[in-house]
Design goal:
single chain
Amino acid sequence: MGKKMVDNSLNAYWSATKIRRSSQILLEHIKGQSPEIQSDDDEYDVVPVHNYPKLILQTADLINAQWPRSQMARVVTLQSSCDNLPCNLIVTKMKHKVVVGHLKITPIPSDRKSCFIESVVVAKCYRGQGIGSLLMERAESYCRDKGIETIYLSTYDQQRFYSRLGYDICEPINIFGNRSFVRNSTTKKTYMKKLLT
């Protein structure tokens, strides 16, 4: 009986150790420190995160690698994703095992035919491979399917990227309801929009 308990304890220990090591490898991968996760399946898939709840923590880590914040706050936000808006789309690899990109589509209460895209991020080791363009293309398709006619976004340093995708600089938009918006004169954000029709 004692040997069986020891064997079970050792198995539990090694299983926990393997899980921790796997989590560490994935976290390093997300932060761009370990790009050598090998896979025969190099297909990328863009899916809503709410369809893959096991990927929520990994997605939170990816976003936090770019914009640090409480993991719990990120998780709560990601858990609000749904088939309508808001919706968090993720780019996955290895048959939905690794998250390499994310964006959030948020409704604009004052304009039901518009939305705001935010928190666009691609894991550092995957940048420059067209994943951001793929993610934006799929987000636009998702928005069209929902009857959205205009997409807004803001960026500090990716104006050229969004311009290549057809976005034009525009006046700031208030995504919290009231249409009137006074631009903060100290912000370095550039607001952009794209008409989908």
